[in-house]
Structures are given as C-alpha cells and as structure tokens.
Amino acid sequence: MASSPLDSRVPAVLLRIDRNPFHHGTLGAVRSLGRAGVDVHVVADSAGSPVRSSRYVRQLHPPPPPGAAPADIAAVLLRVAARIQRPAVLIPMDDAGALAVSRLREELAPAYLLPQQPGAVPERVADKAELAGLCAAAGVPHPDTVVPDSAAQAASAALRLGLPVVAKWSRPWLLPTDSGLRSTLVLRSAHEARELYLRTEEAGSPLLLQAFLPAGPDRDWFFHGYADRSGTLRAGGPGRKLSAWPRRAGLTAVGEWTDNPQVRTLAERLTRNLGYRGILDLDFRRCGTTGDYHLLDFNPRPGAQFRLFADAGGLDVVRAQHLDLTHRPLPPRAPQPGRSFVVENYAPLAALRRAPRGRELAWYAPDDPVPGRALWALWGAHVGRRLRARLPGIPPASPAASTPVTDPSDPSDDEKARSC
C-alpha cells in the first residue's frame, strides 16, 4: 500500500440507503479504496450481504431507513463522522443517497469532503422529467417525452408517441416500497397509460411517457466518469452492454470497455453545460434508424459496473474523487479498451470464458475471496425463495431463513428500460 497515490490518512464513507444486498457496486468501491490503503466505512444495510465479509471494510454502520427525512440522514452521517474523528470523503452509492447529500451539503461539509456542485444539479439530472429539458438545452439527443396532466391526456399521448410506450415516474426514489409500482414500465395500450396515471398521487411524482426504441445489437451504451474541480472529465470512459439482466431491459450483466468518441462527446457536452462536479453514470441507447445516441438516464453517483473502467494504473471514478478532493494529482489516464466486467450470478457462463484483454468479476476477487463465496450461498437461498413463491404446492421458507431484499430480477430502479 506504500506506493498508493491516495492519501491513506483520509478515510472514505460509502452511503447506500436503498435495501439491496446484491448491489455489487458497493463491494467494488470497498475494494478499490481499501486496496489503495484507505479506511472504508460502509453506511448501508449489510445484513445478509456479501459486502459485510470483505476484508477491506473498516467498519459497518447502520443506515437511515428508506424514506428517511433529510434531518435523519444528516444525523446518521454526523454520528459516523464523530466516530471517525477526521474529515472523510463521502461517496453515495444510490440516487437517494446522492440527492440527500446534495441537499445537506452545508450541514455535512465540516465533516465530509464533497464535490462543489452548483445549485441542485444532482436532483435536476435525477428527475427524469427535468432531464429532457436539460438535454435539449445542451443539444444532447433524448427520447421524445410527454408529461401528461390528466388521465385522458396520458392515453392520447401514448397513442401519439406510438405504442408500445415507455412510462417512468419522474422521481423514482419517492415510490413507496410497498406500492408495487415500478420506476419504469413498457405500456402496450392507451388504457394502461390512463390507469397508470391515476396512481400519480400514490407514486409521489409526475408520470412521464417516452417514445420506445426496440432493443438491438450494439445499441446499449453507458459512460462513467468523474468531473473534477475544474469540470474536466477524468477516469472512466464509454462502455457497451453485451448482456443484461433481465434480458434487454435490465442492469449490465456483461459489459465491455469500448472506445466511442460520440458517446464521450455527448457526456462532455452535458457535463460542461450543467457545471456538474463529481461521479456520474450515464445510460445511452443508439437509435437504429438515425444512429443517434439518446441519453436515457443521468445517475449522479457511481454505476454498479464502474469497476469496468479501472485503467492500467488502477484509476477508477471512486479513486479519482478521493484524489481530487484531497488535492492530490490525478495520474494520466491509461485506458484498457476491450476489458470486460461480468456479474457472475447473472451471467455465470460469461465468467468462465477467456478474457484476453482483462476482466473483472463483480463478486469474486483472489485477494478478497470471501464475498464471492458468500454470494452463492445467499443467491441460492434467494432464488429458492422466489421459486417457492411462484410454484404451487411448495411451502415457503421459514421467516428466520429469509432476508428481505429488493429483488434484482424484478424491474426496479436499477432497470433501464430502453426508449428513444
């Protein structure tokens, strides 16, 4: 660890409010910073999660509950800061955490090192209705979007955009956990659009409808980066989604670092126009008719597959943020195009194939093997519970053996339904 360019005197705190024990991005951040000699504190619900068994976790802290008020989130983070007793780099790992930290900047700044974001930029880009206007102002292609103000207008907008149509809740982090509502759906009739609009009050944010673009080869792309104090994009790069879970409309199961000047240009243009600072994860889909890359989502935090873009010097977006906020120089980028990233529980066969240009697995690592082993025991139990719930005549598992989870096999906030 002596050769690490990171300042090991400054710890890192990872915040995750969403309950998802299978969030491999959190483990990736733990390992990346821990390998560089940084003490890593995790504020997340780690019960039943492989993350808790990583050798690189310095300490686990209980998170604020889902839907917690900003004051409660601030109280949790300030308690953690008091235990650490020195300023730390704070990295939210989900949208709810990123937006809370943005709103609480003044309260948290004495205890945490944070990017200097202008205004409420993280909340603006995470709001799926507002993102359309931000893209238009920056000249970045975005799906045709309608925000209906009545059930009748929702039905007519669905017909005008062309069925099927994508429906999204503008602020998915506000969805009640027990509502059964999903952040993104593909609707196939005007009646479905009308009925969904009637649940707007329950959802807590406006419904928006977007024109749909069918899936196809070489169409799903993403960009991960870190905008430093000057606004320059550092670390990360463009990548191509080779496999998704669920198929065609889910999170990245297999990704590849692939150079794409068009995607990079769009990311730089939007970041510059917004004055954005910090880590970002952008999702694009290429339109098969025009060839344009349409921005679908702007996530103001690390994406779960950010470790795909660990370059030849070990630099990734979380290390870039730590270096930048501790006023240490960022080394020149050493891209590794062709490198791949595989989430083993979603693409087990891909994890066994040869990877001549390098590959990182989401869960298993030779220097930190226990989380990989823990995953398969937990994943097997999880899949077993799902099968018991779906197949008649099979008794459910006892409550003591169950761990409440956000099921990553169901479309949820992690789902990136593709639209254009």
Automatic annotation (TrEMBL):
UniProtKB keywords: ATP-binding, Nucleotide-binding
InterPro entries per UniProt: ATP-grasp
Location of the region described as Disordered in the Swiss-Prot/TrEMBL record: 394-420
Superkingdom, taxonomy of origin: Bacteria
Compositional bias per record (Low complexity), positions renumbered to this chain: 399-409
Residues annotated as domain ATP-grasp: 132-326
Protein name: ATP-grasp domain-containing protein
The species this protein was found in: Streptomyces vulcanius
